[in-house]
Amino acid sequence: MAHADLNLLVTLDAVLAEGSVTGAARRLGLSPSAMSRSLARLRRTTGDPLLVRAGRGLVPTPHAIELRERVAQLVQDADAVLRPARAPDLSALDRTFTLRTSEGFVENFGPELIARVAAEAPGVRLRFVQKPDKDAAPLREGGVDLETGVVEPTTGPELRAQALFRDRMVGVVRAGHPLARGRVTRARYLRARHVSVARDGMAQWPIEDALETLGLARGVSAVVAGFATAVGLARGSDLVASVPERHTANVREGMHAFDLPFATPGFTVSLLWHPRLDADPAHRWLRGLVRAVCAAG
C-alpha cells in the first residue's frame, strides 16, 4: 500500500484557509500554476473537488469544510514536532534527575546545587547515587542522567564530557595534630599512620603509585571506600588522610591541609552524559547549573 504524500497536508491547509488558488500560492511562496497542479493532486488523492466555482470565486465542498479544522491542527502539531526544542518552563518542570558521583562531590557541591535547583525549578528532584566503578552502562541505558569523574582511556567513547575543575591531592590532619606544625617532610609523612581510600580493593591512586615509584611505603591503619569517610576518620584521630583538595573542601573545614612531600599528578574532574540527552533543554539547564556551582566553589 502506497503511503500518502504528507507534504500535501501543508498545501491542503493553505487552500482551505485561503479559499483560493491565488491566496494559497501567495501563502506558500508558489506560482499560481504550481498551486493549481498541487490542487489537482489533492483532488485525486482525496477523491473530492475541495473547492468549486461559485460565481467569480471558489467555495469549499462539505468534505473540505469537514477537513479544514483537522488539517489545520495536524499542520500545527507537525510544525511543533519539527521546531527546535524550546527552553523549559522551569517553574512548571516536574522531573527527577539521577546523578552518579562520589560521596565527596555530593558533600562538597551538593548543598549549593540543590539550593540553586530549588530556587529555579522547585518541582525538580535530584537523586544522587554512588559510583562504585567507571562502568558506562548506566549512562547508556538511561538509569543515570549525569556523572562526574576523571575521563580515562576506558571511558565510553560515545559519551559527552565537559571539564568541571582541576584538582590535586593534599594531606589532611585534625587541628592540633603534630603534622599541623612545621613543614611536613617526606620522613614525617611516612612516620605517621594513614587512612587509605580504596575502590574495589585497589590501593588509592595516585598516592601508592607515587610512593612505589620512589621505593617508599606508608603505614596504613584503615582502609575506607570514600574520601569523605577518610576525612571523618582523620578529624577524630591521629590518622592522616590524603585526599583531593577541591573535592573535599567542605568536609575538611577546620582541619589542617598540607602539600604532600612528593609529586602526584593533578587531574581534571569532568561532567559526563550520553549524547541522546545532549539537546534536551532541561538536561542542558542542569548541566549549566552543575558547571556554575563547580566554578563558584
Share of residues in strands: 15-25%
- Number of beta strands: 12
The top-level CATH class of the largest domain is Alpha Beta
CATH architecture of the largest domain: 3-Layer(aba) Sandwich
What is the tally of helical segments? 10
Shape: rod-shaped
Instruction: State the helicity in percent bands.
Output: 25-40%
Q: How would you explain this protein's 3D organization?
A:
The chain has 3 domains: 7-82, Arc Repressor Mutant, subunit A, CATH 1.10.10; 90-167 and 268-296, D-Maltodextrin-Binding Protein, domain 2 (3-Layer(aba) Sandwich), CATH 3.40.190; 169-265, 3-Layer(aba) Sandwich (D-Maltodextrin-Binding Protein, domain 2), CATH 3.40.190. The protein contains 10 helices and 12 strands. The protein has helices spanning 7-18, 21-28, 32-46, 62-82, 103-120, 137-141, 186-191, 207-213, 227-235, 281-296; strands spanning 51-54, 57-60, 95-100, 124-129, 146-149, 160-167, 169-173, 193-197, 219-224, 240-244, 256-259, 267-273. The protein has a 5-stranded mixed β-sheet, covered by helices on one side. A 5-stranded mixed β-sheet has the order 9-8-10-7-11. Strand 1 (51-54) and strand 2 (57-60) form a beta hairpin. The longest helix has 21 residues, at 62-82.
Task: Give the topology, please.
Layout: H1 7-18, H2 21-28, H3 32-46, E1 51-54, E2 57-60, H4 62-82, E3 95-100, H5 103-120, E4 124-129, H6 137-141, E5 146-149, E6 160-167, E7 169-173, H7 186-191, E8 193-197, H8 207-213, E9 219-224, H9 227-235, E10 240-244, E11 256-259, E12 267-273, H10 281-296
Parallel strand pairs: 3-4, 3-5, 8-9, 8-10
Antiparallel strand pairs: 1-2, 5-12, 6-12, 7-10, 7-11
